[in-house]
Design brief:
47% of the residues lie in helices and 9% in strands. A 3-stranded mixed sheet has the order 1-5-4, with no helix packed on it. It has a two-stranded antiparallel ribbon with strand order 2-3. α2 packs antiparallel against α4, α3 packs across α4 and α4 packs parallel to α5.
Length: 179
């Protein structure tokens, strides 16, 4: 059986992509490594290129994350972390049509799934963890010693290899940012 699909109602030109994206480390984009093309799996057309991080980029990212952790984020009160997560959730909801199109072009996931499921779930995930950010000190293990407070453990890294990468990324970083 052959299914004849209609074209997507939004053209791929509805988003403006730069020709090259580099790793964003310490508040700036880096361009130290070689590049790799990011293609649309449906057409094979190149959407953009990404700079491949090298070992110096990885070291710089760990250093920048460590500095952010010790420079304020690690000791930020839950209400501040919640405020940032609420802002991220609001931005995801506000920009969901554009982000859904980018997810579709990048991963080949149907636009209907991205618009109706993936992006709303990403925003809801941020709202959920924002709600927890200022309550974590009350949610401790039963076997935790008296007076034990939740605290940041250190820098984490994650790789996202998923057919719909944005919701997977949000699910992982929202929890880390809340904690």
């Amino acid at each position: 059986m052959v299914f004849d699909y209609s074209p997507a109602p939004v053209p791929g030109t509805a988003v403006d992509l730069r020709p090259v994206y580099g790793p964003f480390i310490g508040g700036e984009f880096r361009t130290s490594g070689g590049t790799a093309a990011v293609g649309n799996p449906a057409t094979g057309a190149v959407l953009t290129e990404v700079v491949q991080a090298d070992s110096a980029d990885v070291d710089a990212a760990v250093d920048a994350a460590s500095a952010a952790l010790s420079g304020g984020w690690g000791s930020a009160p839950g209400r501040d972390r919640a405020r940032h997560l609420y802002l991220l959730a609001s931005l995801l909801a506000e920009r969901s049509p554009e982000l859904a199109l980018l997810e579709t072009l990048d991963s080949g996931t149907p636009i209907r799934q991205c618009r109706g499921t993936s992006l709303p779930l990403a925003a809801e995930t941020c709202f959920y963890y924002a709600g927890w950010a200022d309550k974590l000190r009350h949610a401790r293990r039963q076997d935790a010693p008296d007076g034990a407070e939740p605290r940041p453990m250190g820098v984490v890294a994650l790789l996202v290899a998923d057919p719909v990468p944005l919701p997977t990324l949000i699910r992982k970083i929202a929890a880390a940012l809340a904690c």
